[in-house]
Design goal:
By secondary structure, the protein is an alpha/beta fold. It has one domain: Amidase signature (AS) enzymes (Alpha-Beta Complex). The protein is built from 17 helices and eleven strands. The longest helix has 24 residues. It is globular and about 60 Å long. Its EC number is 3.5.1.4. It holds the Pfam family Amidase.
């Protein structure tokens, strides 16, 4: 492989080769920056290039290695950071024009964790305003495009991250997820992620002037998007390192104890009142067969109370958002994001007052129901969306558009509400009239067992392969 093609390497391959001395961190980073400069103008996934500082850091890593310093697990791996998380000296704009000059005084814990592991940040990726859409566009940086084509949204809110890593701009992309913001971009761009459970990755922005709402603290998590499921096993142990600035972080090891016997996987195609597209059904069958071939015991199940959890959870989140974010959205948001929130409120009427407090308390009941269910089935293979991924701006097209984007996403935000880990992995590339469309499936895991969901993703990927080569052949 020539130096110019090093951007094709996974994070695992890159770290192994830089640590062994087969390639330098400088070569790996230069290749990723060259790829970024080639494809990003058409995608607008990375909205702040950090090429100059990335090259300086790579050179410093090479010197440290030459001087005998130990290499971190992500030595020389190019990564991106989403613009809603603090990186010292950079604006944490969150896609909002009024926040374009809010410069972070220090790094968020996850940025420090990645840097301490040897990663190199090459750029910052786009998000919608307030990071609160399943699509990625904003008045500050503009629209991010999906590398598969303009027939597909790149997803949101970590749409820049998903588009970047799929296109070969860095082997890992940071993102976060309060209702699907890691998994929507993974599904849209045909890449893989794990939404960690509550408390797994330390979270804090030094630039913040107030604490987030209690439900946001419980539902929002930090994570990574990758092209290879194995890269999550490499990188997430660094992401979850404890930081005293997050007093609720849970300092558990990444990998838990092995389970006895074949792992039981609950399998469902349930999408409630939403029609299941034939290609989504086929993707689920392919994923199921891959798990059976890998030795998992797959059984059809009826998931407990999923629809109630999803609808009530999102109405509760909207209640907190209306109480705590409404003033900023109206004062600082564009007409587009205000209209999107109006439609959120129409489709998910916010709980308020005493009822809001009661529904926040009811989270524990729903979490207990699923905890008991997962005692029998440590993993559950589910749809992510009932239909293949939607087109750009679909959530701005009134009630029908919002129903497709968020109404059908019960399997997404329900897992945030009860704080469970959920992986998202591609199972096929559908040949649809609009154009080639990745179709991902979701794997829900027991609390604290993200590793089991990643193991299952690797089993699916091992049989069905990644979509990277097909995408890069199209992109040229």
């Amino acid at each position: 492989m020539s130096n110019k093609d090093l951007w094709r390497l996974s994070a695992t391959e890159t770290a192994a080769r830089t640590t062994a001395g087969d390639i330098t961190a400088t070569a790996a980073v230069d290749a990723a920056i060259a790829r970024m400069e080639t494809v990003n103008p058409a995608l607008n996934a990375v909205v702040v290039s950090l090429a100059e500082s990335a090259r300086a850091r790579a050179a410093a890593l090479d010197k440290a290695r030459a001087d005998g310093a130990p290499c971190g697990p992500l030595h020389g791996v190019p990564v991106t950071i989403k613009i809603n998380v603090d990186q010292a000296g950079e604006a944490t704009s969150n896609g909002v024009v009024a926040l374009k000059d809010m410069i972070a005084p220090a790094n968020a814990p996850l940025v420090d964790n990645l840097l301490n592991a040897g990663a190199v940040v090459i750029g910052r990726t786009n998000t919608p305003e307030f990071s609160f859409r399943a699509d990625t566009d904003n008045p500050l940086h503009g629209r991010t495009r999906n590398p598969w084509g303009d027939h597909l949204s790149p997803g949101g809110s970590s749409g820049g991250a998903g588009s970047a890593v799929a296109a070969g701009i860095g082997a890992l992309a940071h993102g976060n997820d309060i209702g699907g913001s890691l998994r929507f971009p993974a599904a849209a761009n045909g890449v893989v992620t794990i939404k960690p459970g509550m408390g797994r990755v330390p979270a804090y922005n030094p630039s913040q002037t107030a604490e987030r709402g209690m439900l946001s603290q419980a539902m929002s998590v930090q994570g990574l998007i990758a092209r290879s499921a194995a890269d999550l096993h490499l990188s997430m142990p660094s992401m979850i390192r404890t930081d005293p600035r997050d007093p609720y972080h849970v300092p558990l090891d990444w990998k838990g104890a092995p389970l006895d016997g074949p792992i039981k996987v609950g399998f469902t195609k349930e999408t409630y009142e939403f029609d299941l597209h034939p290609e989504v059904s086929r993707a689920l069958d392919l994923a199921r067969d891959a798990l059976v071939d890998a030795g998992y015991q797959v059984e059809e199940v009826e998931p407990p109370m999923l629809r109630e959890i999803g609808i009530e959870g999102y109405r509760t989140l909207m209640g907190e958002a209306k109480a705590l974010m409404e003033a900023d959205i109206r004062a600082k948001g564009s007409a587009t994001i205000q209209a999107v929130f109006d439609e959120y409120y129409a489709q998910f009427p916010p709980y308020e007052g005493t009822e809001l407090l009661q529904m926040m308390a009811k989270r524990s009941y729903y979490a207990r129901v699923w905890s008991e269910f997962l005692a029998t089935y440590p993993l559950v293979l589910t749809p992510f969306l009932p239909q293949p991924f939607f087109r750009p701006d679909r959530d701005t097209e009134g009630a029908e558009g919002m129903r497709e984007v968020m109404g059908g996403s019960l399997w997404s935000y329900s897992m945030n509400y009860i704080g469970l880990p959920a992986a998202n992995v591609p199972a096929l590339l559908a040949d649809l009239p609009a154009g080639p469309t990745p179709v991902n499936v979701q794997i829900v895991a027991r609390r604290w067992r993200e590793d089991l969901a990643v193991d299952a993703s690797i089993a699916i990927e091992s049989r069905l392969d990644t979509l990277s080569e097909a995408l890069w052949s199209r992109m040229g």
